[in-house]
Amino acid sequence: MFDCMVSQSKGAGQARGVEPAPVSAAGLADALRPFGQSRMLPPAAYVDPAVFAWERRHFFGGGWLCVGHCDQLPSPGDQRAEDTGTGSVLLVRGDDGVLRAFANTCRHRGHELLPCGPTSNAKAIVCPYHAWAYSLRGGLRAAAGFRHQPGFDDADWGLTELPVTEWHGLVFVDGSGQAGPLAAALSELEPIVAPYEPERLVVAGRHQYETSANWKILTENYHECYHCPAIHPELCKVSPPKSGENYTPAGPWVGGWMELRDGMDTMSLDGTSGGVPLRGLDPRRRRTVEYVNVFPNILISAHPDYVMVHRLLPLAADRTLIECTWAFAPEALAQPGFDPGYAVDFWDITNRQDWSACESVQRGLTSPHARPGPLSPDEDGVYQFVTKVARGYQGQPVWDAGAMIKAGQPG
Ligand code: FES
Ligand SMILES: [Fe+2]
Predict the structure, then answer these.
(1) How many CA atoms lie within 13 A of 67 on its CB side?
(2) Best of 130, 154, 157 to mutate for ligand 1, by most ligand atoms within 8 A of CB?
(3) Per-residue confidence at 348, pLDDT binned at 50, 70, 90?
(4) Which single residue of 58, 149, 228, 396 could bond 241 by disulfide (Cβ 3.0 to 4.6 Å)?
(5) pLDDT at residue 3 tops 50
């Protein structure tokens, strides 16, 4: 698999406060009460465009954000633009093999350098408007008519570089430039994800879903299986809904694991695997599925034989685009007749059951009679996520690992 080289993070790594979100302080205090006594976030957190705008600035644009997979830009000259909370970012693989990220705005008059979408390849970054040309490292190389302009120096007009880093095959960009090292914030998560070697795996299935639900409703749904007996008959056949536990991390992530039923090898409609077990997994990991959410937009579901990743791209308070990928070991893909459908089909059914429930929650929360409800003992993962969001709304940067540890986390 491609070895993803990245440019140096330029983050200052210092704690900083942000403006509080336009959410009722009393509602946040209720959400932050001890587990068992707390309430969900106020409905405005899910339906109010002002809250959504704040989230885009501070949750999606104010720290590390996953903007895709490393193998979407495998070759020198590869370029793609991805939406972030604060404008879009241009990802570029340099001729030195290094992945860099730039604010996707031309230094001339601001035209986007590339529209968000598929990867393209070129020897330079050329603005489509007046054809200013930049090197793959972001320096200005050509600006028609400016060569003899007094005082114009190319060195002053390079692209604005943003911190970018690769973590287990995923590309993260810090739109704020101030979030501090990603690896340090995810240090507790490292030993949970590393054995699966996601960076070695090959994406063999990719779906896109557009849902009419707030991104947090989708994430909260991910963190509990309290709903599984009611809406997931296929899942309950292979994994007991009350199995497993949640971690209690201090960093910007929430997660836990569930077990496979006896005789079931993986999450598929009949519990059999069409792939091969991932190398290096201990006996416990061969019988469990890890479910991890890296704040704010990535859900990593690590199975004994494949890793599924959901990337959430919020479009509006009530609309979220979801990119879902399934990655397998290269040796599984090398098997004659390998078909990723055993995993893709199972989760496609389960995903759609989830999106349907989440869209109904979204509609329900628009009722003038909607009030924040309580959490069951099985919804401790939801509590962890909600309290991270609530503290973020109060102005605490979610990606400030030091502050997270000081604040203490629910047990
Ligand atoms: S805005 Fe890019 S060249 Fe003019
Ligand atoms: Fe579900």
Answers:
(1) 38
(2) 130
(3) very high
(4) 228
(5) no
